[in-house]
Design a protein that fits this description.
The chain is an alpha/beta fold. It contains twelve helices and 16 strands. A nine-stranded mixed β-sheet has the order 11-10-9-8-12-6-13-16-15, sandwiched between helices. Strands 2-1-3-4-5 form a five-stranded mixed β-sheet. Helix 8 links the parallel strand 8 and strand 9.
């Protein structure tokens, strides 16, 4: 199962909107087949492992990171292939959260006389491997992660010269891994105007589909000659309001930029509506890399599901340095936005990252 999970991890960024899966076939203590899924390859991990094993699959045990699927989609059911191949035992790390599959794959295998076991030792690791997929299947929405690079006192920008980086090159390389694993990335127009950023996936790894870049821009101030717009290859969405200039919209659309209106009651872009559009187009994950205002809006509205903050051993101090979340803030300590399932990840000897889930049962958080 350890090797199956390692194989499945090779599908990161290469499988959306499907889950990453790894499969190993073992016969008489010897590995006879291996497979992992990528969207480009189409064939599922179980089928690839069976093909590699050939006749040696008969009488073998399959170790697979996710319950084999049991319905006709782009491919025939993996359960049918497993049964035909003569596999006698299937050990899975977890049940498939997809309602079309959940438990049904195991039922089909058992009905065919195949022994089925869920190895609960690996269930949590397998679920984390496909965290966005599981979240989407439970909620119908993409998993939204708010990422930021901050000083120890929670600042993301100085009031004057912001040349250079808050975190190290190692931390920034880690961010590229998160981008590669994400379907979409969102920022605000203020960040784009200040940095002329591109927000691309620079990992160099294969993707199932292009990283969709989203700019929240209520007045369509995005310059058509910005690096963001100039480098558009059907991978840029600008979220705006009905108050934006029709002429500015035409100019951006002539560059191939997709412009959509998401009006909120306060005249700003409705972030929840953006997330719902992404859900309708089967994007499983969204990473927010923005400034104080957008960050606060994502937290206050409950649009963000979790945070991933990289901390550098620095302090900016002062009242004018921008905090990770600006806006109105909460007026009382008792009303603070709360988190749970907090994890601390070492990045370098002097840097760390904090990952945590938002509590959403109070103050309007969804």
């Amino acid at each position: 199962m350890e090797e199956a999970l390692e194989l499945a991890a090779r599908g990161a960024g290469r499988v959306s909107p499907n889950p990453a899966v790894g499969a190993i076939l073992v016969r008489e203590g010897v590995v006879v087949g291996r497979g992992f899924y990528t969207a480009r390859g189409i064939k599922h991990a179980e089928v690839l492992a069976l093909e590699e094993a050939g006749d040696l699959a008969r009488g073998a045990t399959m170790y697979v990171t996710l319950e084999p699927h049991s319905f006709h989609g782009r491919t025939p059911p993996c359960t049918e292939a497993i049964i035909r191949a003569g596999v006698v035992r299937v050990v899975a790390a977890m049940e498939d959260p997809n309602p079309q599959v959940r438990g049904k794959g195991f039922e089909q295998l058992r009905a065919a006389g195949i022994e089925v076991e869920i190895d609960q030792v690996y269930t949590a690791r397998a679920a984390r491997l496909n965290e966005p997929f599981g979240y989407f299947m439970r909620t119908g929405l993409p998993l939204v992660t708010l990422k930021a690079a901050v000083t120890l006192d929670g600042k993301i920008a100085a009031p004057e010269d912001n040349e250079g980086w808050i975190t190290s090159e190692t931390a920034r390389a880690h961010v590229q891994k998160l981008r590669h694993a994400s379907d979409t990335i969102l920022t605000g127009i203020g960040t784009v105007l200040a940095d002329d950023c591109r927000l691309t996936d620079r990992s160099g790894e294969e993707r199932a589909r292009p990283l969709l870049r989203i700019v929240v821009d209520s007045q369509l101030r995005l310059p058509p000659d910005s690096r963001m717009a100039a480098g558009c290859e059907n991978d840029l969405l600008v979220a705006t309001t009905s108050a934006a200039s029709a002429e500015r919209r035409r100019r951006l659309e002539s560059k191939g930029v997709r412009v959509e209106v998401f009006d909120d009651a306060d005249g700003r872009v409705n972030l929840r509506a953006v997330v719902e559009l992404l859900a309708g187009e089967k994007y499983l994950s969204l990473m927010i890399e923005a400034g104080s205002k957008v960050n606060w809006s994502a937290l206050e509205s409950g649009v963000a599901d979790k945070i991933f903050f990289y901390y550098a051993p620095k302090i900016l101090g002062g009242m004018q340095s921008l905090p990770v979340a600006g806006g109105a803030g909460r007026r009382r300590r008792a009303d603070a936005i709360r988190f749970h399932d907090v994890k601390v990840h070492p990045i370098t000897a002097d840097e760390f990252a904090v990952e945590a889930w938002l509590e959403k049962h109070v103050h309007g958080n969804r």
